[in-house]
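INFO worker-7 received task bundle
INFO bundle size: 2
INFO processing item 0
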Amino acid sequence: MRASFKLFRIFGISVEAHISLLILLGLLVYIFSVTPTPYGFADFPTPYRIALSFTAAISLFISIMLHELSHSLVARRYGVKVRGIMLFIFGGVAMMEKMPKKPSEEFAVAIAGPAASVGIGVISLALSTIPNTVLSAFFTLFAYFNIILAIFNLIPAFPMDGGRILRSFLAERMSYARATKIAAEVGRALAVFMAIFGIFYNPWLILIALFVYMGASEEERLVLLENVLGKGKVGDVMTTDVKFVTPDMKVSEVTEMLLKYKHLGYPVVDNGKLVGMITLKDIINADPDARVGDVMSRDVVTVRPEVSAFEALKIMSERGFGRLPVVVDGRVVGIVSRSDLVRVKEILETLEVMGWKKRSW
């Protein structure tokens, strides 16, 4: 069963909903139906109360989608590829391949979401003056939610927009890595304060604090990792003595290679060209006498030698791969593994501590 399902596409961007969203939608409908105005509709007769509560719950996630869509459209303007928008129990996220490194561009992308929420809130506030009790109550709630959404996202902590806005200001005065480190430390400090406050006043704040703390730490980890590996190329760290197999080999022969060389996957090469990959996972339930060409994976993700080492590690992390063939004109010229890149990272970090300066990196 898939953890998410596609809702629709808008401006060429796919919008998906995580199944956890269904839990929150049901919870919101209940909360709105038992809460008095202006934060709910408990004062209305049952048919109105149920209809308003359901409509409000759906509308809130539409406004979150518009918040994330604003981020996405501005990011695309700066050449950032947006894979889609995911709505889930904590709200929503625009799945971008990367954030712009130029401070002014990151600021524009980060502020776009809160600006959209404020705009929706102001329009809703104006509509709440309609002389109709039902519409007035709905738009009042909608206005409050969007303004609260904007304010919450402006908290200077990753993964909220405020953390990226803070980093954009800091990056104007120092390196991007240093700005990220400071912004992450601010976010973690706020998370600790939020958790302590939540112990005494609202347990929900503890959960939000954990989300903020983990988001700040993960953002710092990724940026510092990119700072170490981002300048190096795959060609600098790949293994050129590549062990490969052919489509006509037997699975039993691959098993022997696994035991001999301790590598968990091998490129499959036919007449000098890459035609697939075979891994331990592919042969677990295969007949030992089966041909490699019958059990190998044909959908192979490859990289070129000039791709950054960080980008290769990012691809492996996102796809769950342990290694990537390095290919030029269809021919395998090397292979790079996740463990190779992690070891290179550790070596470079240690050498930097010792005062060594990267030359080719």
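INFO item 0 finished
INFO processing item 1
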Amino acid sequence: MPLGTLDRTPPPFFKQGPSALSKLTVLSAVAIALMVVDARFKLADPVRSGVATVIYPLQWLVMQPVKAAELVSHYFTGLQAAQNKQTEATEALARQAMRAAQVELLALENQRLRELLDIQQRLTTPSQGAQVLYDAGDPYTRKIVIDRGTTQGIQAGAPVLDGHGVLGQVTRAYPLTAEVTLLTDRSQAISVLNTRTGARSLAYGAPGAESGGLELRFIATHADIEVGDLLSTSGVDGVYPSGLPVGRVTRVERENSAAFARIEAEPVARPLAALHVLVLQLPPPTERPVPAPAKPATGGKR
């Protein structure tokens, strides 16, 4: 075969057609025409309705995990908010109950002292709420542990109240927790005042009963004390503010052969049922002036 008859041009690998610019122009014109027709005659509305109806089950199925996640998130957020409000409401209720319990004591005290002294209005002792975590593990003591410590300003020796009266005293303070010894512990003693007679005495813990009690020692047999007398803090110890309810006298035994009467009292507070407590701030230590040293008397020599 002659060489001149062979086609020396390479065969095309792709099918030749309109150029890309031509395709862009035609498709753009078609798109603009469709948009104009749809905007004027609403021809695509039935198509849209049909497509939306067909794909709605798929959309619903895809949205279910998202809605479930939102519901779970809202549930936990609402639960946390409800718990915070419950804690705030419980602390506020404890403060209101404490103020209501002090009304009777303040009324009796004002009735007796208003004629004698012009008493300055009492200032509210700063306090903070705390929650009882658990009872101490030692079965021979009456102690509880609260969720506040030195980080929150709790100090050893601070008085602790519940919604009814004096509960105990902080004996050990840790960074995040504190140990409260209840009044019913045998190692605790508190200075109390009989609101009926005004007599002061010491109440010691008597953990013999199921919930524990108090015992007034060194009270004379002929002392004026009766069952039902209300005992409050006297304030002479410098730790407990005066006028806080402590307990009520439940038993008075007098024997002619004994020098002292046997007196038992029941705490006003509820040691076994306390869930939220109030920790009072310790009063600042009083600064006692140091007396100047006495100068030796100088006398002339003869």
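INFO item 1 finished
INFO post-check item 1: The domain at 128-280 is CATH 2.40.10.340 (Thrombin, subunit H).
INFO post-check item 1: Residues 112-123, 287-291, 297-302 have pLDDT under 50 and may be disordered.
INFO worker-7 idle
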